[in-house]
Each structure stands twice: as structure tokens, then as C-alpha cells.
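Quick log. Single chain, no ligands specified.
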Amino acid sequence: MEYYQLNHSNLIDYLQSLPAVQQRFSSFDNLDVKEINDGNMNFAFVVTNKQDPNQSVFVKQAPPYIKVMGEQWPLTRQRMTAEINALHYQSSVCPEMVPEVYYQSEALSVVIMQNLSKHAILRTELIQARYLPRLAEDLSTFLAETLFYSSGFALSSGDKKAMVSKSCNQDMCQITEDFVFTYPFEHHEMNDYNPALPQSVIDSIQKNPTVRAQVAEMKYIFMNKPEALLHGDLHTGSVMVNEQQTFVIDPEFSFAGPMGFDIGALIANLYINYFSHAHRKSAESVNYSQWLLETIDQLWYKFEEKFLCLWSEHELKQEQTFMGKDLSGDSHQTFRQVFMQQLLNESLGFAACKIIRRILGVAKVADFMQFEDNTLRAKLETQALKMATTILVNRQSFKNIADVNKLAGVISSETVFNV
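-> predicted structure:
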């Protein structure tokens, strides 16, 4: 089928032509089409039966350009193929946390899936200080299962190489290389700075050889370490939640990369949200800030526990180990400890880069942008930047996530701001 753009005029006819979608609606005579304008890359619609709101689908289509930029910013539609492949993989290993896909077309770069109308975007819920009791449990499960089962610990050498080859997503990786690891650190014309953020703070990152060298190291790892099939953009805007369920969405940046990139991206966004709350004196804010740190702590430790459990169970089932025979009896355990420590350190490095890009780069987040007072926002951004540069430069010295949380607590309490 030749590619064409779906819109309000032709979408219902298109859906009606698909047998996989026909069963989702009792009638196509009373459908409401609502375009979702939150995303930057793609077109998205929610289609609902007006007579029965439970009959609804979410439609996402990738145009051959960046949607918010227009046709003058061309971008291949390969990102939708990557998303489709990632959704199928994630559904196979962690189906309870991935929306059900009803239909997909690489020719039209379309995916039609479950509409998560009873869920809210995680970032919005965190900004509003909502407690989510399942968050650490669910996200640690998603990370452990998706990262382990696509790694060389679970796949044969041949299958792992085939996965890496299939998951190439060059255009989206280039965007990450530019907008996460390069532009924010070189005073690029696309960067967007808070006018109240002191130039000295910006210079302390962009003109600091030690920081720049560490960022370059993280960029190199990102480009050259295909450990597992990543989500590739796992921030709090890519998670839908309510108190009972968690769903991970939008894996259009998916590729075979370093495990710590997904973990670090999620941790970074949780720390950003932490600093948006921790400056307030109220008991409610103090309690919620503490809950955020506890969530980060539990996210890492539950992930580590589940990943190691999957690793052990897989080797017992296969009756062979990744490293071969253990002649001393301690070699397997030693290797696993070394691996998990390195993974923590890389996750912290990626988290730092993600925090910095959200402040110095072009893609801002509502956690900080909600504050209309630029001076207040600059103070919070300065705290987050200090946190990021400290863990980036010293990431090898952190032996556990609890010490990172202590650092966040110290930095956030250095100066208390009233709002």
C-alpha cells in the first residue's frame, strides 16, 4: 500500500477497512475522532464510539518528517518500524505493561492499539504529587524483563547478533546523539536557556573539560554498546499509570544499546521531579519528596533483584552458564556483582546527561517549566545541574543508589525556597 497521511476525513474509512479493527466497534456510524497534539514526532488520534466510550482505539502514524517542524525537517519513517518491532518484543516478555496492539502497517507507518483512557501520564501525576504504590514494582519488572531477555545472557550469540542487526534505528539514535550528548554541551543555536540561569552555571558545564570528557565517554558507550533492546526514550512522559496499572508507551527510539541508558533516563526524570518538590517547606511536599527518593531506591534494588533472578533461573533451565564452568565456586557470583556495579555506574552517567539536556538543551519538561518565576526555576535548575555533574564525574565511586539519594537530599536542602 502506498503511503498517505491519515486525517479526520479519511481515518474512519481506513479503520472500517481493517478486519482487525472492525471487531473493536459495534458500529462505525457514531465515531468521534480526536487528534492528540502532545507529541512532537508523529500524528496521533483517539477514535471512540460516542454511544459506547469503552469502544475506543488509539492510532499513531509517523510522517516522513518531524511533525512539529513540518516537511522542511525530513525524517524517515523507520522510527515506526522500530516502534512496531519493540512493541512486539516487549509484549512477548512483559505483556502486562504494554498496550495491546490491534493492527500495524509498516507501509503506512501506522500502529493501532489499546486506548489507555483510564490512565494518566506519569509526569503529570508526579507534578501533582500523586502517590503511585505500584510504580517501582512495575517499572523494575519492565526494565528487568525487557533488558534481560534481549541480552547476551538470555540469547545465543547468533540470535543476539540478529537482534542487533534488526533493531538498527539510525535516525533516532542520531537525534539522541545530537540532542542529549552534544548540543547541550556546546552552546548550540538550538539550545534553550532559562534567562535567569546564570551564565556562570552554564559555563561550569559547557567549559569544564572534566565534565565534557565524561559526557563524551557516555556518548561513546551509547553508540558502541549494543547490550539489549532498549525502549530508547524511557522518561516519565512515556509511562501511563493509575493506582492499579502501569503501561510503557512510545518506543519509537528503540534500538540495541547499553542497558544503563533506559535505567538512567527513568532515574533522571524522577530526580528532576524530586527537585521540583523538595524546595517547598510544607509537610506534604517533604513527605512526597521522600517518597520519590524511596521510589528511586526501590526501582533500582527491585530491578537488580529481578534481573539477577532471571539470570540465575535462565542458566539453571539451560543447564549452562554464560561464563562457563566455575572451578572456584565463586566466579559466577563475582562476575554478577561486577556487572551490576558497572551497570549502576553507567546508569548514573546516563541519568546525569539526561538531567543536563533537559535544562540546557531544547526539550524542556513540565516539572520545571510549571514555575512561571524564572528566578525560582533557575535555582531549582542549578540544584539539578549540581546533582547531575556530581554523579557524572563521580559515578564510579557510588556503590549503591542510597548514597546517590543522600546527595540529592543534601543538594536540595542547601537552600530552602518558599513558593
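The mean pLDDT is 95.
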